[in-house]
Design brief:
Blueprint (H helix, E strand, L loop, with lengths): L9 E6 L2 H12 L2 E3 L1 H5 L7 E5 L2 E7 L23 E4 L2 H13 L11 E3 L2 E3 L1 E6 L5 E6 L3
Parallel strand pairs: 1-4, 5-9
Antiparallel strand pairs: 2-3, 3-4, 6-7, 8-9
Length: about 140
Amino acid sequence: MTKNSMRLDHIVLWVTDPLAAARFYQGAVGLEPVRVAEFAEGKAAFPSVRVNDETILDLALLAFAERMKMLPGAAASAGHPVNHICLSLPADAFDALRTRLAEHGVPLSDIGHNSFGARGKASRSFYFRDPDGNVFEARHYDE
């Protein structure tokens, strides 16, 4: 491991229905909802889901992309060009996620082996899409 103190804070996903996306991530993926009730009440601009203590996924309404003015070209970022987001889990949580996604009717890739990532080669991995087409990889490493 490096001694870098930088961490991944959040990823913003463009979604067509933030509440439906939050339900998917809570129910099918098993992530904790953040500010979902506040968003539903009009008190927050978007809901989020918690990946871990340090990282969340923000579920931003795709229609708001045109308002992204903080950087030239930011509005064009909607749908560009993230290939996938990888979630690393312990083996038992990996199995539980795959089961939960299947129970929700989410199409899953076959299980791959020994794909390289931040912690070396992962024992197993698979891919799935959320309802808005964002691609996720789930993996676990032998500990």
